[in-house]
Structures are given as structure tokens and as C-alpha cells.
């Protein structure tokens, strides 16, 4: 039962991330702080997902995951002070929705990990997150890109 819920949450989060990326970010272009910060946000999520693949879910490992997840949930909010100056209402709403989904997705990953039997779902989520992080890093920081506005 939990796997379909997780797929729904992961899918909704991915859909909203794609709207944020390909509508809002491409529309306004990203200043340097976002070109660096957004891949770091993804890395904080990726670290949590990677734990589910390389560690066995014991009590200590779940505590480490919880600490990493809490850090990620706080870390992704770091840009909101600057976003207040450069984003419109639609992008603010989308960020709010993503902030709500973030701990839910990480909690579901921990649940799937602790229950066992969901390795392929966690591998898929980790792979998609890795691919998105690689895209963010390469696309927004490629040397041949015309410079974006640094605010």
C-alpha cells in the first residue's frame, strides 16, 4: 500500500519540480546564487536517498537519515529571502507546495527503506534525482552559457 502512495508523492514532487525548472527558471534565467544553490539543494536530497541504498536500516542509520533529512528540509529554504525579490506569486506558491512535499517524500523514502522490499523504487528515485542534479549543474553552469543576471 505504501509504494503506490510513495509513487504518487514522488511523481507529484517531480512534476512540480519540472514546472519550476522549465517554466519559471527558464523564463527568468537564474542568477549565480541559484545556479550554485539549486544543485546543492538536490545534493542534500540525494544524500538521503543514497543512504537508503548503501546502509542497512538500523536504529542508528535511521537517526542519521532523520538528521540528514532535517538538514535538507531546512537547507532548501535558504534562497527564499532572495526569491522574495526575483520570483512572482506563482513561483512562490510552487515553492510552498514543494516545501510541503519535501519532508513527506523523504519520510516515505525512510519508510520504504525501513520496511524493506522496495529497493527498486528507491533506486529509481535516487537515479532520477541524480539525473536532475546533473542536469541542473551542467545546464545552468556550462561555460558557453550567456551570463545570467547576478542579483
In short:
This protein has one domain (2-141).
Any key phrases for this structure?
82% helix, 6 helices, 151 residues, single chain
Descriptive report:
α1 (2-28) runs antiparallel to α5, α2 packs parallel to α5 and α3 (59-75) runs antiparallel to α5. The protein has one domain (2-141). It is globular and about 45 Å long. The model has no long low-confidence stretch (mean pLDDT 94). The chain has helices at 2-28, 32-54, 59-75, 80-86, 89-115, 119-141. The N and C termini lie far apart (46 Å). With 151 residues, the protein is mainly alpha-helical. The chain is built from 6 helices and no strands.
Distance between the termini: 46 Å
Helical content (DSSP H or I, runs of 4+): over 70%
**Shape descriptor:** globular
Radius of gyration over all CA atoms, rounded: 16 Å
The residue ranges in which pLDDT falls below 50 over 5 or more consecutive positions are none
State mean pLDDT (0 to 100 scale).
Answer: 94
Question: What sequence of helices (H) and strands (E) makes up the elements?
Answer: HHHHHH
- Strand fraction band? under 5%
Largest sheet: none
List the helices and strands and how they pair.
Blueprint: H1 2-28, H2 32-54, H3 59-75, H4 80-86, H5 89-115, H6 119-141
Helix pairs in contact: 1-5, 2-3, 2-5, 2-6, 3-5
Amino acid at each position: 500500500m505504501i509504494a503506490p502512495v510513495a509513487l504518487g508523492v514522488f511523481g507529484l514532487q517531480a512534476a512540480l519540480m519540472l514546472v519550476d525548472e522549465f517554466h519559471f527558471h527558464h523564463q527568468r534565467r537564474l542568477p549565480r546564487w541559484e545556479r550554485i544553490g539549486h544543485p546543492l539543494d538536490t545534493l542534500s536530497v540525494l544524500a538521503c536517498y543514497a543512504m537508503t541504498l548503501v546502509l542497512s536500516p538500523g536504529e542508528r542509520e535511521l537517526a542519521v537519515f532523520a538528521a540528514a533529512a532535517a538538514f535538507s528540509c531546512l537547507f532548501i529554504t535558504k534562497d527564499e529571502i532572495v526569491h522574495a525579490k526575483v520570483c512572482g506569486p506563482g513561483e512562490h506558491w510552487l515553492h510552498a507546495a514543494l516545501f510541503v512535499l519535501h519532508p513527506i517524500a523523504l519520510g516515505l523514502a525512510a519508510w520504504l527503506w525501513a520496511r524493506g522490499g522496495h529497493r527498486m523504487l528507491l533506486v529509481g528515485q535516487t537515479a532520477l534525482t541524480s539525473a536532475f542534479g546533473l542536469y541542473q549543474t551542467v545546464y545552468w553552469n556550462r561555460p558557453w552559457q550567456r551570463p545570467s543576471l547576478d542579483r
